[in-house]
Amino acid sequence: MANFGKLFIVPTPIGNLEDITLRAIRTLNEVDLIAAEDTRHSQKLMQHFDISTRLISLHDHNEAQRATQLIEKLQQGLNIALISDAGTPLISDPGYGFVNQCRANSVDVIPLPGACAAVTALSGAGLATDRFRFEGFLPVKQQAKTQVLESIERETATCVFYESPRRIADTVQAVVDVLGAERKVVVAKELSKTFETFYSGTAGEALEWLHADSNHQRGEFVLMIAGHKSDVNDIPEEALKLLKLLMAELPPKKAAAIVAQQYGLKKNTLYQIGLEFGS
Ligand code: SAM
User: Fold this and answer.
1) Ligand 1 centre and the CA of 206: distance in Å?
2) Count of helix runs (H) and strand runs (E) in the chain
3) Measuring CA to CA, which residue among 80, 99, 90, 100 is closest to residue 33?
4) Are strands 158-163 and 221-225 parallel, antiparallel or unpaired?
5) Which atom of ligand 1 is nearest to the CA of 118?
6) Ligand 1 midpoint to CA 263 (Å)
7) Exposure pattern of 133-167 as b/e (b: 16+ CB <10 Å)?
8) Within a 10 A sphere around the Cβ of 48, how many other Cβ atoms?
9) How far does the centroid of ligand 1 lie from the alpha carbon of residue 69, in Å?
10) Measuring CA to CA, which of 14, 89, 101, 196 is 20 to 30 A from 109?
11) For residue 232, what pLDDT is reported?
């Protein structure tokens, strides 16, 4: 709508204050209002970057009512930025209902690219990134947590979770219990901060590492679980040999398709196994 204001979704740093974009700073300066998850927390960021735009709270407990008020302001022509305490708003953070309402009311939503713990962790973990499944926080209750982990048992994509320092050891214990001690995981902690650490190993080893030093359980965590590996034992030896040969010459998809046709096997399974040859 011509006279409507716009809603800007603005990522903020997840630790290192240098991880804010020039566009984010300009946008936060130019908008009429900044909707923040915690205004007191965000005030420090505003002071650091000398931004004097007015802050208004929008969090899980007032989002529905606040969204209605803010949409009225947007319809009056005000521009608004949405920020969360850290990282990209809406990613395990408030804002979904608000953005949904903006779109339903023909208000333009402009998301800015920027910091996000899940993507930062994935990009440095050394696990497959061609496909990943973001699950946010696991449920706190043991039974529900177990159910979610059971549901990813045969997931071939890398699974990404957020976790708190209070629960990281229990959660890795649950991974050992449900997915087995041999499942490969990467624990990324304190990304972009002084004590940034990536621990990579089996779930059993990660559990030992977490218990080896109480400092290992401090900070903010992203837990990544390697995807389920296809069972090579189900594939005839000759098919595996041919796949290996073809993988040296052809793109993985093409190699998988040829072997699948030749042996009447599933293309996707062969593709996954082909990728595992290289990992
Ligand atoms: N919206 C944020 C984002 O874009 O990443 C995530 C918000 S969520 C409420 C907070 C969780 O993200 C933390 O509990 C932790 O699991 C993860 N996280 C945030 N900052 C992190 C960091 N610097 N290092 C590791 N994990 C982080």
Assistant:
1) 20
2) 11, 10
3) 80
4) antiparallel
5) 5
6) 46
7) ebbeebeeeeeebeebbeebeebbbbbbbbbeeeb
8) 11
9) 28
10) 14
11) 72
Nearest to 9 by CA among 132, 102, 77: 102
Find where tokens 């915690």 sit: 38
Q: Supply φ then ψ for residue 188, to 5 degrees.
A: -110, 125
- DSSP annotation of 149 reads H
How far is the centre of ligand 1, averaged over its atoms, from the C-alpha of 125 (Å)?
15
Which helix (H) or strand (E) segment is 189 a member of? strand 184-189
Residues whose beta carbon lies within 6 Å of some atom of ligand 1 = 14-15, 84, 86-88, 91-93, 116-118, 162-164, 188-193, 220-222
Order the strands of the 54-57 sheet from edge to edge: 54-57, 33-36, 80-83, 7-9, 109-111
The residue whose CA has the least distance to atom 20 of ligand 1 is: 14
**pLDDT tens-digit series, residues 181-238:** 999 999 999 999 999 999 999 999 999 999 999 999 999 999 999 999 877 777 888 9
Q: Cα(221) to centroid of ligand 1, in Å?
A: 7
What DSSP string runs through 26-91? HHHHHSSEEEES-HHHHHHHHHHTT--PEEEE--TTTHHHHHHHHHHHHHTT--EEEE-SSBSTTS
